[in-house]
Amino acid sequence: MRESLRLAASFIARGGRRPGRGSVQKYCGLPVATCLIGVGLLMALAAVPQAHAQSDVEKQTIKQLIEQNQALLAEIEVLRQDVAMLKLEVAKIEKERDDLQQFIDDHDAYGTAFEQYTYFREMMAREARERHLAEVKARREEQRKTLRSRRQQTQAERLAQQSKEDEIRERHSKLRKAGFTLVEDDVYVGQMGYAYKTTKEKTIRYNPFFESYYLDEDEQIEYSEMTVSGSLVHAGEQEYDIGVAIAFFDDQESQIGQTVVKVNGARPGVPYPFTSIVTMAANRPFRTYTAWVLYFDPIPLPEPIELPVTTETDEQTAQDGDDAGTTSADDDG
For domain 179-298, which CATH number applies: 1.20.120, 3.90.580, 2.60.40, 3.40.50? Predict the structure, then answer.
């Protein structure tokens, strides 16, 4: 390695020139790569002391800057405290100035009598305190009134809602006790009756024992037509237009008939009877039925009619007009 360094130094001293044509790959019996490595090591070793010295200088400079920064921060803190003290002094001086100005104004207003000045000053301060206390008391009283009014209003609304709910529950209970069944949306249907269409067949038969003829009547049930009768009622709070569908099913749960019941302007709690003729789709009796609400639309309340208000002046004017007309008629006569 020392030989490599020495040869590298000699190579650098020669300005990087190789001594001969045959020394392309080797210089003084060593590879060129080895010489270059040696050159790099020499340059690094030469730069180490300089870099170390430069690092020490930078550290010293940074240390000095930190110390100077800390000193400046300390001075700034001292200045802040001084400014705060000055502000307090200025505020105190301004207060004294205002008091002095108030004293001068009061002196100009009330004269030189200090007792009179003190009396009026205390009286004004007392009146100001009394006004302030009166305003505070009035605000608190107003707040208490507002809270009391809100509490009473809330309680009244709660009682009204409770009464309304109790009335609705009582209405539903009465309808259930009367035998009505809830469909949905406060709509009830009463117990319905059913009757199938019947036909009579007349047949002339011969009685050989009596050797005579007689008329035989046989009654047949036609399940293809059925009459259903019942009642609708709702437990709402106003008038409604109601539409209810009723469907009939057989043993296989197939729908074999239906009818729609409509009631316009139905009042609450009033049963509305209906009778419908249903054409059945099977020649056999139905087994079950189901009902549902098609619509349950409230009827809007009519707008109140505003009557013209007649004042005493209008009545007197009308009376004067009637009197003038009567006088004119008398003059014509």
Answer: 2.60.40
